[in-house]
């Protein structure tokens, strides 16, 4: 869910076959090890100071150790898809943010002693994966068995589309506002912004840890977490936001592009019933001629199809501008007018 160059082919095979084998092998190896002897040898004898310092360095910078990113991404997918069954929500959850905590360890710090801009994107991968795995778990499980469930049909043959399910990143843009200092804790608030026939757009805000609190938690497991109280300040977030990013995902079955409405609707239950459906019309986005000017999104109300569509259209106003950036591909001239030079590190 993090890279445009990588799908998730074979998750339907990797998870039920290789994951148990890997966990079982690691568990057996851990059981066979004499940990008392290992710890005694580690903490005593020649070189113990270097070993302890190295261990502390790894513990304080585990986020940037080899394969840590891979572990974080796949653990997130497995957690929401198999380990913990997320509760089924209705349309009122569709545009709610998913909050992912993180921090800025030493290996992410640049020469200004701030979190390097390039490292924002690795954390963004995790935040987006949490959101999509949580909201789309049921529909994606059904799509992964499309040969049996027949959710997506080939428009040419009428048969079910075959192939592994893939989620690929098409583009991402991040606007930086304020720096994140070394070892500072922060949170990423990711939510669905909008979608069109091809892309699901996600917006993510980086905030100081606990700088903002929701008025409620929809997931029962978070019921004990603190919500915004009557004495907590509301608003003024523009003075606290570190950065804001927008990303777009495309869903694939083999080489076939899956409409985002299949993921948001269906088994996930995030899209209410709509006259004509969510994939009808010339642009496969429903009847776009319907006037929704009377829908007031600033006032709490029932999330019927009109309110959901009004929120989608509002989000698309920003997504269209983001989509226009693809025209930058056309300004590359292939060196027709020369170049400055070519240098390595």
Describe the structure.
By secondary structure, the protein is of the alpha+beta class. Helices cover 32% and strands 15% of the residues. Strand 5 and strand 6 form a beta hairpin.
Describe how the helices and strands are arranged.
Layout: H1 11-32, H2 35-43, H3 48-60, H4 68-83, E1 98-103, H5 120-135, H6 137-143, H7 146-149, E2 165-176, E3 185-195, E4 199-208, E5 243-253, E6 256-258, H8 260-264, H9 305-324
Pfam families: 4HBT_2
InterPro entries: HotDog_dom_sf (IPR029069), THEM6_lcsJ_thioesterase (IPR051490)
Family: Belongs to the lcsJ thioesterase family.
For the structure shown, list the relevant keywords.
single chain; 345 residues; alpha+beta; six-stranded antiparallel sheet; 9 helices; 32% helix
Terminal Cα separation, in Å?
A: 31 Å
**Count of DSSP H/I helices:** 9
Query: What radius of gyration results from the CA coordinates?
Result: 23 Å
Name the structural class: alpha+beta
Shape: globular
